[in-house]
Design goal:
Helix content is about 25%, strand content about 35%. It is α/β, with parallel strands linked by helices and about 170 residues long. The longest helix is centred in the first third of the chain and has 15 residues. Pathway: Purine metabolism; AMP biosynthesis via salvage pathway; AMP from adenine: step 1/1.
């Protein structure tokens, strides 16, 4: 599938000088969206994951149908204060401060093999934090999957040798 034809390029967003790659137009084409999920599932099936971590918020939109396609439980990874039960959390640096991601402790077991999923791999901060969450709970990271990877930001390098699968690399 040609994912690029479903990506809108927005100049100067969220600030001047940034060229934002918006993948949300794929939701306007149910057939393309379905095909993307099929291809994404095929690309990660061999990793042997038992659960999927999906990052808030766009990761949820793709992670949910991916979990159904693979027949795997979905563990939502949320920002601090958004989950009602006991959580484990990891804070990580951003270019403009810090953020904290959390999962429910009961949703992950030590024998789990976690597929880390997000829509875009940029600097790797979010993906690295999700890997750390899985490891804090004693689970194994099976690999990381993304729809698009912005290779010039070198996010893959922050993932310390974890298997990375990206549908589109720019």
């Amino acid at each position: 599938m040609d994912i690029e034809k479903h990506i809108a390029v927005v100049k100067d967003f969220p600030k001047k000088g940034i060229i934002f790659k918006d993948i949300s137009p794929i939701f306007l084409n149910p057939n393309a969206f379905s095909q993307l999920i099929d291809e994404l599932a095929a690309s990660v099936r061999d990793l042997g994951a038992t659960k999927i971590f999906a990052a808030e918020a766009r990761g949820f939109l793709f992670g949910a149908p991916l979990s159904i396609k693979l027949g795997l439980p979905l563990v939502p990874v949320r920002k601090k204060g958004k989950l009602p039960r006991e959580t484990v959390e990891v804070s990580y640096g951003l270019e403009y401060g810090t953020d904290t991601l959390c999962v429910h402790c009961q949703d992950v077991q030590p024998q789990d093999k976690i597929l880390i999923f997000d829509d875009i791999l940029a600097t790797g901060g979010t993906a690295k934090a999700m890997c750390s969450l899985a490891e804090k709970l004693g689970a194994e990271v099976a690999g990381c999957a993304f729809i698009m990877e912005l290779s010039f930001l070198k996010g893959r390098e922050r993932l310390n040798g974890v298997e990375v699968r990206s549908m589109l690399i720019e």
